[in-house]
Amino acid sequence: MWGRGLVAERDVMPDTLRRTLREALDDLCRLGATGAQGQVYAHGRDITASAGAGMPAAGRFRIGCATGAFTAAVVLQLTSEGRLHLDDEVDTLVPGLLPDPRITVRHLLQHTSGLADYVGDLAAGSRLARHEPRELVALGLAHGPRSEPGAHWSYANTNAVAAGLVVAAVTGRSWAEQVRNRIARPLGLRDTYFPYDHPALPRSSARAYQQLQLGGPLFDVTELNPTALDAAGGLVSTTADLTRFWRALRRGELLDPAGLAEFDRTVPAETYQDVRAGIGYGLGAFRVPNASGGFWSHPGDVPGTATCNGVSADGSRSVVLYRTTTPADRALRGCMDERALRLVEEVLAA
């Protein structure tokens, strides 16, 4: 009798999670997303669903700042191999890159370097232009330091781009090659890659749309030169690949115990406390507290696309979703973000 009860519960749970996923995706479309897709891994099964228009079953999309978790994992692998140390000063690894010699590799991964973000300085209309990583770092440096190294947490894409340059200096290969060889290939992530100077996505991808002004039309912004995002946000992936990545990260398939322990050392994410009180940032992802003990996540936005994700601490459950419209209304974008985060919490707490 007990055995039959356990089997029945296991059979029911995927159906419950499938409904939960579909409801969230439908809600995102009602809020204004052109399309939304999600994937859940739980109870040893993958559950996928989509809503809205033009959402291919295994479509590739730009994952934005979630790229930073891949970059951080590569750096921590190099640390475990003894090829660098987290407390190495960046200036000793990449001479002349940063003006403050006190900034360390740890500061970059932890976003406590005091560097300003460069993204707001990208020229309007340069969506298809090629950028060099040192150029991106220079844009951030032009604002001067935001704080002393280690004094405060503030998310800046400049940090991840600089970390990518550290990887290249230490290995002689680009961060993207290292992600491919160290993460994508070993895990079988066939649809995860950096497109370099190629702005288009494969035909089997959803279109991305952005609204520039309230009440205005939607513009197709699918084409984007990923060199503007580099190691901070340039990767393309799928929901299937990302759920696999997050599980592998938490299960120790990518990092040894020492590396994962460093990844998990968080500081308060000071400017994100309005999202969730107590949220912290480790060396590559946010730790979000909740009644079930918390989970790990790294959202990502690019023009026209936003992704949200989460994984349990032990890697037994993961969820990834993305939507393909960026409305001009910030409050509406906030509502979309909240609905996506609620889905993640419902899946990981079920």
Draw up the topology in text.
Layout: H1 2-31, E1 35-42, E2 45-52, E3 61-62, H2 67-80, H3 90-93, H4 105-110, H5 133-141, H6 157-171, H7 175-187, E4 209-211, E5 218-220, H8 230-233, E6 236-237, H9 239-250, H10 257-263, E7 267-268, E8 280-281, E9 286-288, E10 295-297, E11 300-302, E12 305-312, E13 318-323, E14 325-326, H11 330-349
Parallel strand pairs: 4-14
Antiparallel strand pairs: 1-2, 1-13, 3-6, 4-5, 7-8, 8-9, 9-10, 10-12, 11-12, 12-13
Helix pairs in contact: 1-11, 2-6, 2-10, 5-6
Keywords:
14 strands; alpha+beta; 9-stranded antiparallel beta sheet; disordered N terminus; 350 residues; 3-stranded mixed beta sheet; single chain; Beta-lactamase
Describe what is shown at a glance:
The protein has 350 residues and is of the alpha+beta class. The chain is 38% helix and 16% strand. The chain has helices spanning 2-31, 67-80, 90-93, 105-110, 133-141, 157-171, 175-187, 230-233, 239-250, 257-263, 330-349, and strands at 35-42, 45-52, 61-62, 209-211, 218-220, 236-237, 267-268, 280-281, 286-288, 295-297, 300-302, 305-312, 318-323, 325-326.
Q: Give the biggest beta sheet.
A: 9 strands, antiparallel
What count of helical segments does DSSP give?
11
Helix/strand order: HEEEHHHHHHEEHEHHEEEEEEEEH
Report the sheet-strand fraction.
15-25%
CATH class: Alpha Beta
Number of domains as seen in the coordinates: 1
Mean pLDDT figure? 94
Q: Number of DSSP strands? A: 14
Quickly give the structural class.
alpha+beta
Specify the CATH homologous superfamily. DD-peptidase/beta-lactamase superfamily
Low-confidence region ranges: 1-12
Portion of residues within helices: 25-40%
Looking at the structure, the CATH topology is Beta-lactamase
